[in-house]
């Protein structure tokens, strides 16, 4: 009987010892040899770390799938051209008012007639420019996202936006010069504008203000598309589903309005240099800034900010909404094998 009691006491002591030492042993093991964790603990920790990386990176490239470059280029061209033409047609009057506000010196009167002046000629440039921009942006973005570390997706979007902007500038600048000269009443038609600009100023006249255009559009394109893509990916991650058309439009409007406000001074400088013609009132970007501030005050650098933010905000809503919808429609026409790869990506 005494032996049984003694044996029972020993077993009780061992049980208590195991209970007390269990957490301590796990704690020591966690510090000394993480490889000794059980499979369940490994899984939980790895999942936690992966969730954090996924949140900051926005994308996953753990299983890279090859993408069809030509198809991505083609779909980008179609989607970009469609979105660009719709936005330009719908919001052209607001853009005209913005241009006239920026071009007016001192307290010049702003005319509200002919708000669609130059639309046809502008669309002839907007269509290929928008198509080229998105056609370059989409494959460049996808390539960079596969090349950059996951936590640098924002840099990939910024870079792709800037590269797309450089490509599109070859068409955008002449289009913008002709459009703004017509909006300010210097010419009656786009063909006349092109002919007279080349005759008086040479071919380089069509690229007047090219430096200031890049100064405005490269950061604009990079920032706008980066904000849009990052907000969209973050929202998609939080909602755990694909975004619908209204959600894409709202994010696009916010990205456009914010970027438009930030880059307004650059837009004013670009406008002044483009519309000066052969008068050469400004010798360059820095001279334009100094002259504006000296003659009209610092507030001149924010001229037209209201119409610009309104125009680009609404434009961003329409552009990105149409862009995503067009991309979805084009994706539905892909062969079944490519659809499967797209879903996996």
Automatic annotation (TrEMBL):
<feature type="transmembrane region" description="Helical">
    <location>
        <begin position="154"/>
        <end position="173"/>
    </location>
</feature>
<dbReference type="InterPro" id="IPR018108">
    <property type="entry name" value="MCP_transmembrane"/>
</dbReference>
<dbReference type="Pfam" id="PF00153">
    <property type="entry name" value="Mito_carr"/>
</dbReference>
<keyword id="KW-0809">Transit peptide</keyword>
<feature type="repeat" description="Solcar">
    <location>
        <begin position="152"/>
        <end position="234"/>
    </location>
</feature>
<keyword id="KW-0813">Transport</keyword>
<dbReference type="InterPro" id="IPR023395">
    <property type="entry name" value="MCP_dom_sf"/>
</dbReference>
<keyword id="KW-0949">S-adenosyl-L-methionine</keyword>
<keyword id="KW-0934">Plastid</keyword>
<dbReference type="GO" id="GO:0031969">
    <property type="term" value="C:chloroplast membrane"/>
</dbReference>
<keyword id="KW-0677">Repeat</keyword>
<keyword id="KW-0150">Chloroplast</keyword>
<dbReference type="GO" id="GO:0000095">
    <property type="term" value="F:S-adenosyl-L-methionine transmembrane transporter activity"/>
</dbReference>
<keyword id="KW-1133">Transmembrane helix</keyword>
<feature type="transmembrane region" description="Helical">
    <location>
        <begin position="110"/>
        <end position="134"/>
    </location>
</feature>
<feature type="repeat" description="Solcar">
    <location>
        <begin position="70"/>
        <end position="143"/>
    </location>
</feature>
<feature type="repeat" description="Solcar">
    <location>
        <begin position="247"/>
        <end position="329"/>
    </location>
</feature>
<keyword id="KW-0472">Membrane</keyword>
<keyword id="KW-0812">Transmembrane</keyword>
<protein>
    <submittedName>
        <fullName>S-adenosylmethionine carrier 1, chloroplastic/mitochondrial isoform X1</fullName>
    </submittedName>
</protein>
<dbReference type="InterPro" id="IPR002067">
    <property type="entry name" value="MCP"/>
</dbReference>
<comment type="similarity">
    <text>Belongs to the mitochondrial carrier (TC 2.A.29) family.</text>
</comment>
<dbReference type="GO" id="GO:0005743">
    <property type="term" value="C:mitochondrial inner membrane"/>
</dbReference>
